[in-house]
Amino acid sequence: MPRVRKRRCVASFDSTHEALAAESICRAEHVAGRLIPTPVEIRADCGLAWSMPPEERGRFEDAASGRFTYAGLFDLEL
Amino acid sequence: MVYLNCAATARDRPACVREAVVHALDEFGSCGRGTHASELDAARSIGAARCSLAELLGCEQTERVVFAANATEALNMAILGTVPPRGRVVATDWDHNSVLRPLYRLRDEQGVRVDFAAAAPKTGVLDLEGLFGSIGRGCDLVVVSHASNLTGNVLSDEGIARIAQKAHAAGALLLVDAAQTAGERPIDMSSLGVDLLAFTGHKALMGPQGTGGLAVAPGVEVRAVIRGGTGVRSFDEGQPEAYPEHLEAGTLNGHGIAGLGAAVLWLSKIGLIRVHEHAMKLTRRFVAGARELGATLYGDFPADLSQDFDHAPVVALNLAGWSSSSLADALARRYDIAVRAGAHCAPRMHRALGTEKTGAVRFSFGWFTTEEDVDCALSALGELAKEAR
Description:
The complex is a heterodimer.
Chain A: E1 7-12, H1 16-28, E2 34-37, E3 48-52, H2 57-64, E4 72-77
Antiparallel strand pairs in A: 1-3, 1-4, 2-3
Chain B: E1 2-3, H1 15-27, H2 37-57, E2 65-68, H3 71-80, E3 88-92, H4 97-110, E4 113-117, H5 128-134, E5 141-145, H6 157-169, E6 173-177, H7 189-192, E7 196-200, E8 212-216, H8 254-270, H9 272-292, E9 296-298, E10 314-318, H10 324-335, E11 337-338, H11 347-353, E12 361-364, H12 371-388
Parallel strand pairs in B: 1-11, 3-4, 3-5, 5-6, 6-7
Antiparallel strand pairs in B: 2-8, 7-8, 9-10, 10-12
């Protein structure tokens, strides 16, 4: 059975500390998603990335505001 | 046994520390090196310990609490990472070899000038005015021990804040060695103006050996001395600029840090003011008893011990008729009491006290030390004092 790819919005971070802070805040704010190995398409940054459904992007950005820093947001098919 | 060597390491710890270490050994993967539940658990545990320590030490940015193997490694990171070649450092007679040896290395290999503020004979009181006088333009770093690991003399918050002001006015950073005080009393590096604070995890913080770290104030730049893998920016040739990875190359001691994190949470619930009050009660009791025995005490203690004074729970002494090594050995072998004899890695402090040749016996107390422990040591000292007559 062929692998099914899904559109995801992925946040990258400059440090593991920021990725963990993002996870903690996103959980508290009920932003759907989870930590994943940083996709090779992003290449640089931290080994941890936050993967979420594309529709969560706005809520993620609101949750981040002034509370944690992410390096970039990428629309990917994973 | 009676364990009175808490300034060397904590022997007794809250049960939660052992439980956290065992859990980590059984369950943890490697922090920042994967996203399996076991790896994320390790990362979350280390992150939680970092947060707890930042709060405990008054470090404004959590990510700037950087883990190291001990205070020695943290002090090396701070000293070697901030002092330029042919720079200038002001330190003190209170400093431990963990400060002195990196400074001597910089002096010998990079032409760094190192000036020392003196401590007084017998009491070991630090010449603060002399310290201020040494801090001037061209000074890169001021290093002070929060408390002497030999005498237990401690710098007041006011004293540290004044040193910070003088250092900053001269364009220098202030590094505080809190090996003897982190976990023993409240410390707020932010309000005191401390730029760099080195701590160890296995003394008053009561975590496992092999833990410690450096807390770095916002905006303070520390060059990474140790370089290597971080799980971050793997294609960059240089060390990542972002903290904590900037100063945390290599796999962390996740098992030990899990225990340290549990210890810090436990201490936070007890409250460091309560911890310090307990330490002072034991120190007063021991000093009063040792005075009655005629022991020679080294340190700044008031004549009237009921008056308000501050001290770390560390007391060094000698007893007439006994060498420091023989006294410590007798306490260990005959009374099952653990203390520390010798030079205590504090050569300048011993020279200042005039105990370079004799050494001294150090008694040090922790949260799990009881008044009965102190009385037991005093009773043993009393018997040994009589033998010497």
